[in-house]
Amino acid sequence: QVQLVESGGGLVQAGGSLRLSCAASGSIFSINAMGWYRQAPGKQRELVAAITSGGSTIYADSVKGRFTISRDNAKNTVYLQMNPLKPEDTAVYYCKQVVRTTYSTSSVTYWGQGTQVTVSS
Fold first, then answer.
1. Closest C-alpha among 121, 119, 117 to residue 10
2. How many CB atoms lie within 10 A of CB 13?
3. In a 3-state reduction of DSSP, which class is residue 17?
4. Cα 120 to Cα 43, 45, 85, 91, distances in angstroms
5. What span, in angstroms and rounded, lies between the C-alpha atoms of 86 and 104?
6. Cα gap 20→69, rounded to integer Å
7. At 11, is the pLDDT very low, low, confident or very high (cuts 50, 70, 90)?
8. CA 85 to CA 92: how far, in whole Å?
9. Beta-carbon neighbour count of residue 71 at 10 Å?
């Protein structure tokens, strides 16, 4: 089994910054893509940013130039540095990791529990 634990959400004023972390633990052989998604009230979950095992990144247009995704493979952790934040960034943020476990040759997608980010104007 694999577990993802997120941290770093909270309440911040517009223009401020937050750093989200998502650490994976368990029967991990390797981790392929890692990503962050968000879901605002009444809206569908959307991709915020993703990073491949080779370090290539993609970003939603709404966060380009403001958010930075990175990963620490030794710690099985993905980060999302967010600044400057805007009120429209308010949402629950979820991390996703595509994991190959030690007991299978197939990769499985795991999700974090979600962390609330609230940006006040």
1. 117
2. 11
3. coil
4. 19, 21, 9, 12
5. 42
6. 9
7. very high
8. 14
9. 20
What pLDDT does 70 receive?
98
Q: Where are the beta strands (DSSP E) in 14-72?
A: 18-26, 28-39, 46-51, 57-59, 67-72
Tell me, rounded to whole angstroms, the distance of Cα 110 from its chain centroid. Answer: 12
Amino acid at the residue 60: A
Sign of CA dihedral 85, 89, 93, 95: negative
CA 114/CA 96 separation, integer angstroms: 10
- The Cα 113–Cα 93 span in angstroms is 9
Q: How many CA atoms within 13 Å lie on the side-chain side of 78? A: 31
Q: Is the pLDDT of residue 103 over 90?
A: no
Rounded Cα distance, 80 and 68, in Å: 6
Percent of residues, the chain, with pLDDT higher than 70? 100
